[in-house]
Specification:
Blueprint lengths: L6 H12 L21 H16 L3 E4 L5 E5 L11 E6 L12 H16 L8 E6 L12 H6 L5 H5 L9 H8 L14 E7 L4 H5 L3 E7 L1 E10 L3 E2 L11 H22 L5 E10 L5 E2 L2 E10 L2 H22 L2 E10 L2 E2 L2 H13 L4 E6 L4 H5 L5 E6 L15 H19 L2
Parallel strand pairs: 3-4, 3-5, 5-15, 6-14
Antiparallel strand pairs: 1-2, 2-4, 6-13, 6-15, 7-11, 7-12, 8-10, 9-11
């Protein structure tokens, strides 16, 4: 079956969506947007998506946290059969790219349109999904909509999350008209596909049209605190100091060394990063008395993540002994590595071969909604090439032809699974 994507139609959708929250710039290499949940830009993006759903003959549902679903039920389909779903998100990080999230939503819609154009009528409904607040830039820590839909986060807890202005998610959704009352339950889906830009260079370097993800990385966030003693920078002798920042500098290097050791000995996909430091009192003429450090550890193997986290604890213990500081380490966010469905991966590879597209296996180093959905039904994550691997940046770019090619792989996979 010919499930060619209409590249011009897909491009028009993505460019129209990119206008909501567009960043003003004269640089032709920058095509960024800021589309945060609850803003007017977010309302406009949602409104347009609903219009496109309705234009394509999809039935629209909105749940309590603003998750959007458009469902196509072909005449030949069993309306009570478990649907096959596909999608991603519309929100962005501040000054993010135009593909991260929206490509997955509009590619899923284009896949439905491609099936309809080709006269393909699956045996079960096909749903197009837009999850709320995947990025965690405004409310919560990320993957919010899919976490609520899959039962990880209670609805009322999610609705109570506040933005920087003190407005709750519930209030923001009510204000923009997207606090719905429909039930959206991924556990009732037969399968879920998410298409996303790769955010790395594996596909670009391989010259492949699409990536079929084997496992989505696990993520651990650690919060380390190092307490020293603030004192006068001029009047405190070097031998009399308990410098929290000097100790923290060793901690940063210890985490880096631990990650490098794990890469060399156990898992070449492991990473460890100290990405934030809060120094107090943060004055040039004061010996730092307290440092809070944010640590991000990721891998597709739980054991290597645990090894890096353990090394971070060992580093803090050493600093207490050698530098006289007091330390603590908390792990407020911990998500295990998530393998993708073999059945859905096979369908994607078959679809790529049938479309004359090249697809390769790879892992995902970033979290995506598919990892939440995978806890309740079969899920698969597909990638399209990303120029230079740049993402969360106005220079994020995926060629329009690459968007269309990966969409054809998605359409073929959805058609195969929806025929079962």
């Amino acid at each position: 079956m010919d499930l060619s994507a209409d590249a011009d139609r897909l491009r028009a959708d993505l460019e129209a969506n990119a206008a909501f929250g567009r960043i003003a710039t004269d640089d032709p290499e920058k095509r960024g947007r800021t589309n945060r949940t609850g803003t007017e830009a977010n309302r406009a993006a949602r409104d347009r998506l609903v219009e496109r759903f309705e234009d394509a003959g999809l039935d629209v549902s909105v749940d309590a946290v603003g998750n959007l679903v458009g469902t196509w039920t072909p005449d030949a389909a069993d309306p009570d059969a478990a649907p096959v779903a596909s999608g991603s998100h519309l929100d962005s990080v501040p000054e993010g790219g135009i593909f991260d999230g929206p490509l997955g939503v509009y590619a899923a819609l284009e896949a439905v349109r491609a099936m309809r154009d080709a006269g393909v009528e699956p045996a079960r409904p096909v749903a197009v999904v837009s999850f709320t607040e995947e990025e965690g830039a405004t409310f919560g820590d990320g993957l919010l909509g899919s976490s609520v839909a899959t039962g990880v986060t209670p609805v009322e807890e999610a609705l109570s999350f506040e933005n920087d202005a003190g407005e709750t998610l519930g209030e923001a959704l009510e204000r923009i008209g997207y606090r719905g009352d429909d039930a959206i339950d991924p556990a009732s889906w037969a399968a879920f596909y998410e298409l996303h830009v790769e955010q790395d260079t594996v596909l670009e370097e391989a010259g492949a049209d699409a990536g079929v993800v084997t496992t989505i990385t696990g993520i651990t966030h650690c919060e380390a605190t190092i307490e020293g003693e603030a004192n006068h920078a001029g009047a405190t002798a070097m031998g009399e100091r308990t410098d929290a920042l000097a100790a923290a500098s060793e901690f940063v290097l210890d985490v880096e060394a631990a990650a490098n050791e794990v890469v060399e000995t156990d898992s070449d996909s492991a990473v460890g990063t100290v990405g934030s430091l809060s120094v107090s009192p943060n004055a040039t003429n004061v010996v730092p008395g307290r440092v809070e450090a944010g640590v991000d550890v990721r891998d597709v193997e739980t054991e290597s993540m645990e090894a890096i986290a353990a090394a971070a604890r060992d580093s803090l213990a050493r600093l207490e002994r050698e530098r006289g500081v007091e330390t603590s380490l908390e792990r407020p966010f911990d998500v295990a590595p998530t393998p993708m469905s073999d059945r859905l991966r096979d369908a994607a590879h078959d679809a790529a071969a049938a479309a004359g597209r090249t697809a390769i296996d790879l892992h995902s180093g970033a979290a995506h909604d598919a990892m939440r959905v995978a806890a309740v039904t079969d899920a698969s994550l597909l990638f399209t090439p990303s120029r230079d691997g740049i993402s969360h940046n106005p220079r994020e770019w995926t060629d329009w032809a690459d968007c269309a090619a990966a969409t054809e792989v998605l359409a073929g996979a959805l058609a195969r699974v929806a025929a079962e």
